[in-house]
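Figure 3 (text version): C-alpha cells given as input.
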C-alpha cells in the first residue's frame, strides 16, 4: 500500500488531559503496562460477580479462545439483580424517552428494582412458552424498554438471543431466526419513529410465513394498532397475566463462561449474513470494563448511547455494559431532528446527561442544521463524549467538542467491530493527549499491529492492514454453524493474527489513525486513495456539512472520484463551489485525488441506523440500477441525485 500523509490541518491540534479529570479518572496509567492475562484477570474479578470462580484466565489455540473457563456467571444477575438487591434498588436504571421527545407524557423512569421485576415477569412468561437454557429467541423491536427487558430475560434463563434491527425487512428476520433455529420471536405491534407509524409485526409475519422454526410470536403493544393475530401469536400483556415478579420464582441460570449469550448477524461481502457468536463471561468482562474506563463511569453518571439495540453498539453499550456498571442510562426511541432539531439537546438538559456516545454521521447531521440548536440548551453537564461506527473527520471532531462538549469535554474516538464485541482502540480519559480524528491507542490488554499484505509490520505514516495479534475477552468465538468461514474470513490472510479488514496507519508519535474499510479505496492511475481521506478534505470546506465518495470507471485513470456533498443551511451548489471543492481536495491530498465530479444533494442516502448506503452511491456513480432503496430514511434523496447525474 502506498504511503499517505496527514490530510487535514486540524489533526495538528492536540488536547492534553484535564489535570482535574486525571486525578479522579478510573483508568490508571499503570494499566497500560500490565500483562494481557494479568489485566483481564483483575478486571473480571473486580467488576463481576461469579457464581463459581474460574480455573483459568485464557486458553488460546489459534483461532479459538476460551476465557475464564470453569467460572459460572449470569449476565442478567450482573446487570440487574445485584443492583436491585443492593444499594441501587431505587436508582434510575433507564430514563425512557419516547419518540415525541423528553416532554412527552409517556416519558418515564425505570429503577433497578422495577427493572428486576419486569425482567422476572418476562422470563416467567417465556418459560410458559417452553423457553429455557439453550432455547433460541429472536427479538425484532424498536428502541422501547421491552426490548432491553427481553434481552435480559433471555440472559436470565440462559436462552441465547439474536436481535434483528427493527428497520430490517421481514425476510431478514426470517433468515436470521431460521438459521438460529429460534423457537420464539418477540416483536411489537407497530413501530413509531419520527412521528410515523410503521409496520413491525406484519413485517415479521410476511417474512416468517409458515415455513419457519418460530413456534410462537410474542407481541408488545406499542401503539395499540389493529394488527392481524393468529394462533401462533400472543400479546405480551396476556402472556404475563398472573406471572410472578418475585426473583425467587425465576432465579438466574448459572452459565458456563463460554456458554452462548447471543448471536448477532452481520452482513457478509457475499452470501448469507454471518452469525457472530458471543459467549457470556469474556464478553461481559470486556463490555463492563471498557464502559467503565473509556467513559469514566461514576456513581452519578448519566449516560446516553444514541445507538440502536439492533447493532452491536446497542448490545454492548446500551444494555450489557452500562447496566453491569449500575449507571443511569437514557433509552431514546426517536430519531435526530424530531419533533424538532433540538430534541437531542433537550434530552441532555432535562436528564443532566454527563456522557454522550454517538456516531459521526449523527454529529454531521447536527453540524448541517447548525450550532444554534445545541446553543439553545444547557449542555454544561457533559463531561465525556464518544464516537463510534466509522472514522470521525477532524472537522466533525472539533465541532463536537466545541458545541456539544463546551470546548473542554474529551472525545473518546473508539474503534471496534461486531466481531470484537467491545472497544479495542481508544483514547482514555485523564491519560491520553487527544488528536482530532484518531482512535490513537490500544485499550489495556489489547495487542494491535499494522501490516502490509505480505505480513511485514509497517512504520509511521504507512497505511496498512490493522490486525490483532493476541486474543481479548469479548472476541467472537466463531461463526454460527460455519467455523470454516470464520477461519477463511478472519484468520487466513495472516496465520498468526486476526484480520480486521480496516486500514490504519501510525503517526509520528505512534498513535493509530483508522482509515476505514480496506475496500473503501479508489485506485486512480495506480495510486490507492482512501475515500475517508477525500471525504475529510471535502468537509474542511466551511460550506460542507457532509460528504461521501465513490468511484466510477474511467478510460484514462482506471477509476475516477465522484463526490456526493451535502451543504450547510441554505447554501446552494454552484459551479464555482464545485470547482472550489475540487481544488480543496487537490491542495489537501494532491491533484490525483481531485474529484472528477461533485454532486450536491440536500442529504446523503442513509439507512434508519444512520449509515450512509455506499452501495447506492457506487451504483449512482457508475450509472447502474439502484436496486432496493426501501431501507433508506428518505428514498427521494437518491432519486434527486440520479436526476443530477443524468443532467450532468
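Below: residues designed for each position.
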Amino acid at each position: 500500500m502506498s504511503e499517505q500523509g496527514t490530510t487535514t490541518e486540524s489533526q495538528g491540534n492536540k488536547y492534553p488531559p484535564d489535570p482535574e479529570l486525571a486525578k479522579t479518572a478510573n483508568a490508571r496509567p499503570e494499566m497500560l503496562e500490565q500483562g494481557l492475562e494479568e489485566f483481564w484477570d483483575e478486571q473480571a474479578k473486580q467488576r463481576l460477580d461469579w457464581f463459581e470462580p474460574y480455573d483459568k484466565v485464557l486458553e488460546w489455540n489459534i483461532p479459538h479462545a476460551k476465557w475464564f473457563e470453569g467460572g459460572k456467571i449470569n449476565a442478567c444477575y450482573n446487570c440487574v439483580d445485584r443492583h436491585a438487591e443492593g444499594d441501587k434498588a431505587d436508582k434510575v436504571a433507564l430514563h425512557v424517552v419516547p419518540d415525541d421527545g423528553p416532554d412527552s407524557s409517556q416519558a418515564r423512569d425505570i429503577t433497578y428494582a422495577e427493572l428486576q421485576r419486569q425482567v422476572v415477569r418476562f422470563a416467567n412468561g417465556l418459560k410458559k412458552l417452553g423457553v429455557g437454557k439453550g432455547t433460541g429467541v429472536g427479538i425484532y423491536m424498536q428502541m422501547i424498554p421491552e426490548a432491553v427487558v427481553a434481552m435480559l430475560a433471555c440472559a436470565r434463563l440462559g436462552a441465547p438471543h439474536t436481535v434483528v434491527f427493527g428497520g430490517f425487512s421481514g425476510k431478514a428476520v426470517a433468515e436470521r431466526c431460521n438459521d438460529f433455529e429460534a423457537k420464539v420471536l418477540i416483536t411489537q405491534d407497530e413501530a413509531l419513529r419520527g412521528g410515523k407509524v410503521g409496520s413491525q409485526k406484519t413485517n415479521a409475519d410476511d417474512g416468517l410465513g409458515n415455513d419457519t422454526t418460530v413456534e410462537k410470536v410474542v407481541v408488545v403493544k406499542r401503539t395499540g394498532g389493529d394488527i392481524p393475530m393468529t394462533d401462533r401469536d400472543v400479546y405480551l400483556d396476556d402472556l404475563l397475566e398472573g406471572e410472578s415478579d418475585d426473583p425467587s420464582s425465576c432465579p438466574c441460570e448459572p452459565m458456563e463462561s463460554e456458554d452462548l449469550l447471543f448471536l448477532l448477524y452481520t452482513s457478509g461481502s457475499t452470501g448469507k449474513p454471518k452469525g457472530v457468536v458471543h459467549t457470556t463471561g469474556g464478553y461481559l468482562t470486556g463490555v463492563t470494563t471498557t464502559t467503565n474506563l473509556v467513559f469514566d463511569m461514576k456513581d452519578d453518571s448519566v449516560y446516553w448511547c444514541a445507538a440502536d439495540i439492533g447493532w452491536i453498539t446497542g448490545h454492548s453499550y446500551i444494555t450489557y455494559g452500562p447496566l453491569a456498571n449500575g449507571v443511569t442510562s437514557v433509552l431514546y426511541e426517536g430519531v435526530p431532528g424530531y419533533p424538532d432539531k433540538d430534541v437531542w439537546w433537550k434530552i441532555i438538559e432535562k436528564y443532566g446527561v454527563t456522557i454522550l456516545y454517538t456516531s459521526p454521521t449523527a454529529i454531521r447531521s447536527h453540524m448541517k442544521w447548525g450550532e444554534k440548536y445545541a446553543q439553545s440548551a444547557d449542555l454544561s453537564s457533559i463531561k465525556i463524549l464518544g464516537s463510534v461506527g466509522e472514522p470521525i473527520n477532524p472537522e466533525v471532531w472539533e465541532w463536537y467538542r466545541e458545541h456539544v462538549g463546551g470546548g473542554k469535554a474529551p472525545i473518546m474516538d473508539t474503534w471496534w467491530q461486531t466481531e470484537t464485541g467491545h472497544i479495542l482502540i481508544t483514547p482514555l480519559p485523564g491519560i491520553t493527549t487527544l488528536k482530532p480524528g484518531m482512535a490513537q491507542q490500544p485499550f489495556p490488554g489489547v495487542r494491535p499491529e499494522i501490516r502490509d499484505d505480505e505480513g511485514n509490520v509497517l512504520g509511521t505514516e504507512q497505511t496498512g492492514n490493522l490486525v490483532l495479534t493476541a486474543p481479548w475477552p469479548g472476541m467472537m468465538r466463531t461463526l454460527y454453524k460455519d467455523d470454516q468461514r470464520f477461519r477463511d474470513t478472519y484468520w487466513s490472510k495472516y496465520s498468526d493474527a486476526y484480520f480486521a479488514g480496516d486500514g490504519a496507519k501510525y503517526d509520528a508519535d505512534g498513535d493509530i489513525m483508522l482509515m476505514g474499510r480496506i475496500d473503501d479505496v479508489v485506485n486512480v492511475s495506480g495510486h490507492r486513495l482512501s475515500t475517508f481521506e477525500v471525504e475529510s478534505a471535502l468537509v474542511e470546506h466551511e460550506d460542507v456539512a457532509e460528504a461521501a465518495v465513490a468511484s466510477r470507471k474511467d478510460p484514462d485513470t482506471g477509476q475516477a472520484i465522484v463526490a456526493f456533498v451535502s451543504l450547510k443551511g441554505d447554501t446552494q451548489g454552484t459551479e464555482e463551489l464545485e470547482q472550489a471543492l475540487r481544488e480543496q481536495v487537490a491542495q489537501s491530498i494532491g491533484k490525483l485525488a481531485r474529484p472528477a465530479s461533485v454532486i450536491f444533494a440536500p442529504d446523503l442516502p442513509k439507512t434508519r441506523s444512520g449509515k450512509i448506503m455506499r452501495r447506492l452511491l457506487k451504483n449512482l456513480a457508475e450509472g447502474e440500477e439502484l436496486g432496493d432503496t426501501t431501507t433508506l430514511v428518505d428514498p427521494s434523496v437518491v432519486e434527486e441525485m440520479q436526476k443530477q447525474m443524468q443532467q450532468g
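The first strand starts at residue 56 and ends at 61.
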